[in-house]
Amino acid sequence: MKRILLLVVSIGFMNTAFSQRLADTALLSMNREQQGVYFFSKARKQNTTGWIMLGSGFAGLVAGTSVALNSWGSSSNSSETAGVIIVAVSAVAMIGSVVSFINAANSKGKGEMLLRKPARAEGPEVEKDLGMMYLRKHKTLRLVGWSLVGTGLITSLIAGQQYNSEALGTVSWLASVASIPVFIASSRNKGRATVLLNTQKIPFSYLSSPIPLTSVGVGITLGSTR
Q: Which has fewest Cβ within 10 Å: 64, 72, 102, 117?
């Protein structure tokens, strides 16, 4: 079970790395419509990876907890240790699934804008305004997501210091879980803004570009060389 879960986690991270490498090379030879189809396909693969990691992580969490509880108080600690390891690896797999879902939303947002059919009378300012709108949504949702994470963490710490703190524990769990769809929505709007603002050649350093851009560098040597 431990080996299977470790394999699932490794596949998830390798999928992200190889997908980025493929994007850096394949997108250069694609037109806008092909890029849109590519990102939709990429989103489906990332969603599939996320569901596999989530399902495997949940199954491992149940199995690991069962093993740890059944070996509780026994003379041998090997089974209990194995259960704890399985739970830890399963938790990593479930966290990795959230990352995959967030990346999938970003890819889907890029695909939507690349395949978007502008109206005939639509000028370049429309895409710029639309991109800025999605950028503002991305920032707002990201702030809300981190606020929920902070609320969950703080209430969890307070609950750990109090007796009969089931209510605080519930609030912490709900806030943490609620942050996931918020981050996913934020990432989707980020993908939309990335395409629209790059189309208008509006640079912003913290948003990844859907298309690798060629850069020109100038080297300046300071001081004398001998």
A: 117
Report the distance separating Cα 11 and Cα 14, nearest Å. 5
The one-digit pLDDT tens for each residue of the chain (226 residues) are 445 445 544 555 555 555 555 555 677 788 888 989 999 999 999 999 999 999 999 998 888 888 777 766 665 666 667 778 888 888 899 999 999 999 999 999 999 999 988 777 677 788 889 999 999 999 999 999 999 999 999 988 887 777 667 788 888 889 999 999 999 999 999 999 999 888 766 554 444 444 443 333 333 344 444 4
- Rounded to a whole number, what is the distance in angstroms from the first to the last CA of the chain? 63
List alpha helices for 115-225, DSSP H: 124-160, 166-199
The SS3 assignment for 94 reads: helix
CB 43 within 8 A of CB 105: yes
